[in-house]
Amino acid sequence: MHKISILVVEDDKAVRNLITTTLEAHGYLYRAAGTGEAAILEAVSGRPDIIILDLGLPDMDGVEIIEKVRGWSRCPIIVVSARSEDRDKIEALDAGADDYLTKPFSVDELLARIRVAIRKMSYDNSGAGEDAVFQNGGLKIDYSAGCVYVEDREVHLTPIEYKLLCLLAKNLGKVLTHNYILKSIWVNVLESDVPSLRVFMATLRKKIEKDPSNPRYIQTHIGVGYRMIRRQGDES
């Protein structure tokens, strides 16, 4: 059975030791790094299944690390940071983080977040295997490559926009509530932040819709949520 490997990026030795000791006690493999440069080297060479990342590192901001890692990997990234402002959370999540845990934290909560990340990994892997390409009218998602096309033209999405599109695609024709989307994408971090969700959805629409004010793919259900409309044939 494959043992989950976790990269712990934390410059505070006490916090780093707490996390690594907890991981070891629960049967996880781990590597540790205390700087951003070391973290990137470990991520490239070790290919961890999950990254636990502090944002306040001595040589670079953790958000920069997220952006670099997202250039080649979709492994779950759990941010563990003393920064508690919503803007910090949104910046990290939009850069590609999967979850955000604020210090001080309990080890039980950290372990729960890790279990959630593992379940999402299993779901994503099984989903990609069953249907590697999603096609809906002129919209195509290549799950294996992580690419999106509209009318055979590649569209470049941020990690959050890509996750939103994939969630809607996997629930084609179903109305997804705001809270369901927020919990699925941000793992309870921003479950009441509907205005932020609207901003992300607006930017996504600008990229995939010819006329965002008259959308063909993503329909708004006012006060409830969003639905991907089932399209037939090619879109002109």
TrEMBL record:
PTM annotation (4-aspartylphosphate): residues: D54
Q: Where in the cell is it found?
A: Cytoplasm
Q: Where is the Response regulatory domain?
A: 5-118
List GO BP terms, alphabetically: positive regulation of DNA-templated transcription
Sorted alphabetically, which InterPro entries does this protein's record hold?
Answer: CheY-like_superfamily (IPR011006), OmpR/PhoB-type_DNA-bd (IPR001867), Sig_transdc_resp-reg_receiver (IPR001789), WalR-like (IPR039420), WH-like_DNA-bd_sf (IPR036388)
Q: Where is the OmpR/PhoB-type domain?
A: 131-230
| Gene Ontology CC terms, in alphabetical order | cytosol; protein-DNA complex
**What is the purpose of this protein?**
May play the central regulatory role in sporulation. It may be an element of the effector pathway responsible for the activation of sporulation genes in response to nutritional stress. Spo0A may act in concert with spo0H (a sigma factor) to control the expression of some genes that are critical to the sporulation process.
Protein name (Swiss-Prot/TrEMBL): Stage 0 sporulation protein A homolog
What organism is the protein native to?
Zongyangia hominis
